Amino acid sequence: GDAADVHLGATGALEQYDAIIVGAPTRFGRMPAQMAQFWDTTGGQWFSGALIGKVGGAFTSTASQHGGQETTLFSIITNLIHHGMTIVGLDYGFQAQMGVDTVKGGSPYGATTISDGDGSRMPSKDELDGARYQGKRIAETAAKLKG
């Protein structure tokens, strides 16, 4: 299926993908209630094991530098792990996340960005490169596991 066909209520579509990358903004240090509600409706897939062995990852944004990026990523990843998915984060092969020369997102748990409270800050080149790196690693891992 085409990823463009999936919308927030389409939990059944998850089964057709080899990898699932979940992106959501941060709300008070966690994923938004709407995203949590989506995952709360995947009990059927959990019960049947439909997502076991699939590869997953997460990315997020926060309004501020210390706005809860990692706790949001954990709140997403926890759902994926409960479904038996193999998690791929933004590993340290992506060295640009290591510097402190500029304000930047990025964590070994997933790609992140900082938007500022009014949403005026766009993702930096390093943040976009990190997201691409993580996406590529997820795709490579899914291909290897699928064989």
- Could you describe the largest sheet, including whether it forms a barrel? 4 strands, parallel
The number of distinct structural domains comes to 1
CATH class: Alpha Beta
Q: What is the straight-line distance between the termini?
A: 19 Å
* Assembly level: single chain
> How helical, in percent, are the residues?
25-40%
CATH topology: Rossmann fold
- Fraction of residues in β-strands: 5-15%
In round numbers, the mean pLDDT is 92
Total of DSSP H or I helical runs spanning 4+ residues: 4
Low-confidence stretches: none
Number of strands: 4
Instruction: Give the overall shape, derived from the CA principal axes.
Output: globular
Elements, N to C (H/E): EHHEHEEH
Question: What is this entry, summarized?
Answer:
The protein has four helices and four strands, in the order βααβαββα. It is α/β, with parallel strands linked by helices and 147 residues long.
Would you mind describing this structure in some detail?
This protein is α/β, with parallel strands linked by helices and 147 residues long. It has a single domain (19-146), classed as Rossmann fold (3-Layer(aba) Sandwich). It has four helices and four strands, in the order E-H-H-E-H-E-E-H. It has helices at residues 33-40, 43-48, 69-82, 125-146, and strands spanning 19-25, 55-62, 86-87, 111-114. Strands 1, 2, 3 and 4 form a four-stranded parallel β-sheet that branches. It is globular, with a radius of gyration of 15 Å. The model has no long low-confidence stretch (mean pLDDT 92).
